[in-house]
Amino acid sequence: MEPRRTAAARALLPLLVLESLVLVSGAAVAPEVMAEEAPVCESATAHSHATCEAEFEYLVQRFNMTRTPANTYFAPVFSSSQLNADGQPVTNTIMELQPAGTRIPWLRTNVATQLFLWHHRGAALAIHALLPSGEYTREVLGDPLRHPGAQFQLAMPYMTWVSTEVLSDTEYVLMSGSAVPSFSRLDYDLANPVELVAEFPKHEAVIMAAYDKAASN
């Protein structure tokens, strides 16, 4: 290759790499956002991995997240171009942030979909569930190296009443979720606490605890 062409190729290489990254991510990032540095939490160490409010605000802005009625934040990541028989994407994924101490009262998806969750950073998340059989279960999504008994990935109980709880008053939780088939983050029904207690009388204390904590947030 001629020297002039070699120099031109070297000059174009960073642009080609950037274009490839944009295509893979599915969306371009504004130059000012790319240049902005993430905040460093004063309480964080190489071992604690502690998070802080400044990080939370940075992530909300960085990924242009939408606030939900429960005061959590989410952003769509992927929606499949493949459609099922009902014309819905066969799967989609989102990223979600829940602030420290968040307790979301009982809700249930109003579409037939299987949900999966992955933990990325921050606090552990307890997932309380009331099964159609009348049983109550509790699983923890988190980093098992920091949160004993937690799982990095969980499948949400199918078409079941659930309530989630961030198990820290100082750290947020960053997670992602996928659905098969796809659904909107806001496709859910909120439970009526009186009716829920009537349906699951043995678990009245667990049911009402979710509303007590949510009211204090």
TrEMBL record:
The keyword Signal applies. Coiled coil: none annotated. InterPro entries: Cupin_DUF985 (IPR009327), RmlC-like_jellyroll (IPR014710), RmlC_Cupin_sf (IPR011051), YML079W-like (IPR039935). SUPFAM superfamilies: RmlC-like cupins. Residues 57-190 form the DUF985 domain. It comes from the Eukaryota. The keyword Signal applies. Keywords: Signal. Residues 1-27 form the signal peptide. This is DUF985 domain-containing protein. It comes from Amphibalanus amphitrite (Striped barnacle).
